Amino acid sequence: MRRRRRRQKTPEQVRRRVSRRQRFFHTIGRILFLGILLAAATLALTVFFKVDTITVEGAQKYRAEEIVAGMDVKQGDNLYLWNKVKVCDAMLEKFPYLQSVQIRRHLPNALVVTVTECSASVAIASNGGYLLLSKEGKALEQSASSNGLPVVTGMTLTDVPLGKVLSSDSSEAADDLLTILQTLDAADMLKDLAFINLSDLHDIHIGYLKRFDIRVDSVDNLAYYLRFAQTVIEDRLSPSDIGQLYWDSQNRLHYVPDTAENIEKAGLGLASSPVVTDTTTKDSAEQTDAVDPSSSDSSGESVEETQDADDLSGEDASTADEENADEDA
What domains lie within the chain, and their CATH numbers? Predict the structure, then answer.
């Protein structure tokens, strides 16, 4: 039998075959190299870079040990194999008085937790006691008493989880409450807040300095109303004045003297309606030049004067009392 002769390959075919072999071995080499790197990285992450120390900075309401015990990251855990954002969010809910949490990794084996804390600004009736809220509306603590904080009346909260922020769309009253707190804080008036009465959202009572009942028909333009009232109190009224401040249908600010007892009743929803004085009558009080804060130029000087009716402070009040005494006689 004649042996079949093998066909000789051309040089081009030989080069292609060699090239395929080279690509195959290069691919295998890359896979092995990546596998070795992955194994080394896994070994390093599991054997090395373990959390050994956790340091807490900025905590006052909570003890450092308490915060460490409440974290989702424990000693011995890997330094990197966890989600920092999720851990921080969980801490904000678990520790309501924490306002912000920042976690930094320090190689080779340390975590530094920096926190800032918030404080309660108001108390609101909830579950037979009071729920303490921050100025951002975050539920901080369920308490049997108001802890001396300004009390919000006219609304009740039930089953609000601690650590959660009161939603602005949960109710119209809650939305107005958040607006009032944020506006008071921006005007630097929150520290002197005495109460908030939301029994009637078209006649909102805001107690200020424990001497004044500021009444607004809505939270629209609240920043302007508060600035205006604050200017009148500081520049036109004396430290001994006590009364109601409200705006009429023509957007004129009125001041009505009152007693501390009635101002306190206003916070409980027991205040009477203000007496609107007709400024065109003979017995009306003289008009005062109260400055409109929204009409100041960049230099801070007043560029417009608005009418402030029923200002019975100072000499006008004493004159009116003398006239009434003469009439009684």
Answer: 53-117 (3.10.20.310), 201-328 (no CATH)
